[in-house]
Amino acid sequence: MKKKLFGAVSAAALVFAGAAMAEYPEKEIQGIIQWGAGGSTDAVMRAVTPHAEEVLGGKVVMQNMTGGVGAIAAKFTMTQPADGYTLLMGAENPMLYKVMGLGDFDYNSAFEPVALLARGVPILVANPDAPYNTFAELVDYMAAHPEEVKFGSTGPGGLPSVVTAMLDAEVDVSATFVPYDGDGPALTALQGGAIDVMPAVLGAALEAIKAERIKVIALVDNTPNEALPGVAPITEDFPGYGKYLPWGPFFGVFVKAGTPEDVVAKLSTAYLEGAQATDFVELLENRAYLPINLSGQDAKDYMAKWQSVTSWLVQDAGIAKRSPEEFGIPRP
Amino acid sequence: MDFQSFFMTFLDLRLMALVGAGTAAGIYIGAIPGLSVTMAVSILISFTFSWEMYDALALMIGIYMGGVYGGSRTAILLNIPGAPSAIATALDGYPLAKKGQAGEAIGLSTTMSALGGLIGIAVLGFAAPAVSEFAIRFQPRDYMLLAILGILLVGSLSGESLIKGVFAGALGLTIGCVGLDPLTAQERFTFGHIELWGGISFVAVMIGLFGVSEALMQLQHINTPAVKQKISRVIPSWKSVVKFLPLSIQSSSIGVIIGALPGTGGDIAALMAYDHAKRVTKDPEVPFGKGARAGLVAPETANNAAVGGAFIPMLTLGIPGDSVTAIIIGAMFIHGLNPGPMLMIERPEMFWFILGALVLATGFMLFFGLTGIRLFVKVVELPRAMLFPLILLLSIIGAFAVNNSLTDVYWMLGFGVLGYFMKLYGYQLGPVILGVILSRLIDDNWRRAIISEREDLGRLFHGIFTSPLSLVLFMAVVMIFFTSTPLWPMLKKRLRRKADPAPKA
Amino acid sequence: MHDPSRRLPGERLFSVLMVAVSLFLFHTATKISGFSGLAEPGSFPMFATGMMVITSVIITLKTFRLPHSDAHGWKAVFPGFVIFTAILMGFYALALKPVGFLPTSFVFLTISTWVMSRGSLLHALAVSALSLVLVYVVFRIVFSVLMPEGVVPEREIIAYISSIFAAGE
Questions:
Q1: What is the pLDDT of residues B328-365, one digit of tens each?
Q2: CB contact under 8 A, B333 and A66
Q3: Are A231 and A202 in contact (CB under 8 A)?
Q4: Domain boundary at A222, A243, A264, which?
Q5: Contact, A88 vs A253, CB < 8 A?
Q6: Chain A, chain B: beta-carbon pairs less than 8 Å apart
């Protein structure tokens, strides 16, 4: 009886092994979204995936796995087989795990990029009643009133902390930093007057800017932005920032390192083609995200540069837990 | 007012069907302890991706409204709240079911939920801009005071022993601290485990404490047959609706305001409304906690009113009022809309469409709520040997499904057993969950408030006493603190003793 | 059902245990950031665990002064069913990942229904199978909750079934 059962099981295993030999994808693919439902990573991934599914001819079941600044989702993907049936849909955070002491891996060491889809543009926004309108005026104001300006911040390694570190590298930022647990709540607080200035992603602040509930102080980029007509990039007045820019949080789809090349290539084609769909392009435009559309070695280079700039910024600002030197991350 | 958009869901048969289906599904999703509205709506995002935007929104709104109400079903029938916002409902709803009056309790809670829902929608329709301006003016210190006000509810949730209630509340606050500190990413109570970075899932704690421990508790009496429920009178009499009208208007106001504040939702609103009912109801027909109808009406009106409240900052400013509206915002982005302050100006028809869909969903909720009672009550009369294994199974899946994590399942089981012992030894579990809900609200905002005053307590109090809103909240905290601790009766006795001898002399 | 004027079996032990847990957590809280300021990450945990220590000590002192309850023995407080179910759930949770959702849940449902109903095994099997199918359809198919697969290749089976339907079209 036992033997018979065993035989049946192994026959079934053979059938499925045979199925695996056939063309990828043979079964549902799991998409692990690193951040919560309704967030920007979530929105981007849920918008692009249906188009990628069409090209791929398969189904991707997406689920959110939050926690540990995205590390829990990343580590989960790393425990799954490298067969292309588990996708990590994440943001830039893993590229900082090493220096922030959150893990000894990053996208380039433990994953294979399927597609880098888009990046956000950092800006500095302020309450519309604030007595400064440009970054130069803010710098002067802070010099005259040390520690009086309330800067919104989020945890170390988050976008506001990196942008603040970047700003502080060239000018003296003397402010009181009020911590928030995300840019959403912090932007709300800015509108309510609980804080005065906030580094944010353009996309998250865009609607409030249009309604003149908050105003842009600086566009932290080296080129003007279509969504912000009339706002000059910060490099115009402060060319010193040029060496860090362009910089911004990015979104991408990844698989575990060691996934067969043809599977990665197929996924890359699907996602890059999916990213051309009109409504996805429109979504990025509405949210003021800039498309990247990189895969393979280009994507790896892009992320390596990003990691080098950011790791050293947080190291020099004194918020890194371990030095980038330990991991051989070169200074930009 | 844009009548055409408002009545869109009423006139289009397909939209109407979607709202109706959503509401019916929501009632069941809300009632099952393992399924939550937040989860359902987030899954609907990918499900409805290729749909028309109006269709998708109609379905989501139905599920939201139905789900908030549905949690009360299992709270009343099984003492297992299907959703956090129904925790307060169980306190007096379950005792009613034990007396065989489940049908009447559900009828009353359904009618009052609908009333609360409509009040919330009315405020959304007529005063949204004003309320949202008020809500975003809340400073960190105001949130802190509000959260302290919330934690003082321990006083009315403690049951027989205040000191055990305080212990339970403090335990909840501690549970809420576990994980990476959201403000500095410092590890707290993680003992070096990455699984604990994200904290202990609130849903796992709730399912453990209210689902598993209650099931274990009822297993003690596995052999006693289920209480036969009278379901002849389901629709409450006009008289009782009128009787509870003043209370339900008050608790709806609590619901709308708490719902409109970003970061607080129906769960806190319902508990606060329960406490409010306990304070203002002079002589309930039976004591609170033993099946007082006012204790059922208040939380049910408040949590449904919070739905309208949560849409206020979302539709006027693009700021989510709770976790469900946060996901609906995400869905609107995917459908090419830009929720934000400009939405009301650029696409005013969306506002009226959502308002109309909410009204319709409330109507469906009333209809399905009152007609489906018989079937639901039958569930409780099922053999317990069938019901309890299923509840336990649902608890495990529910805990797992929140984050797809087995760790959450272990936590859920751990809290199930802990909850069993706590109940056994006279600790109430309400304060634990209250502590977990409020922990971060107090901690984050206390620190924000004091950091923005450069760690100067004097400046903090100066801020409190110079802002009218802060001052009112502060006075409320002081007043409730005195009336809910033994200090107040002691003081009253002292005063009376002093006053009494006077006439004799 | 709990009588505050009487002490139940195990109540003393539980209250002492709570004191121990509170002290341990308080000790952990003091280590988060020390006593360095009002707005440190450790300040609020210290407050919360401090409250736990104070209240649990008071509760313990009160509990020790209570007279023993005559009405309840150990049996009434911990009936066999409760212990059995708790242990069964523990095993279920442990086996969930390696063995997979479907087989574990089926065994769990069958055993618990069978023991609780004291009826026939066949009846329990039928009831469990029905409940499991219902739960599976709602959670896995409708809500796409991916439960641990374990030894059952669910995704392949679903792909196979849908390919049959696809071929039939």
A1: 888 887 787 878 888 888 888 889 999 999 999 999 99
A2: no
A3: no
A4: A243
A5: yes
A6: 151
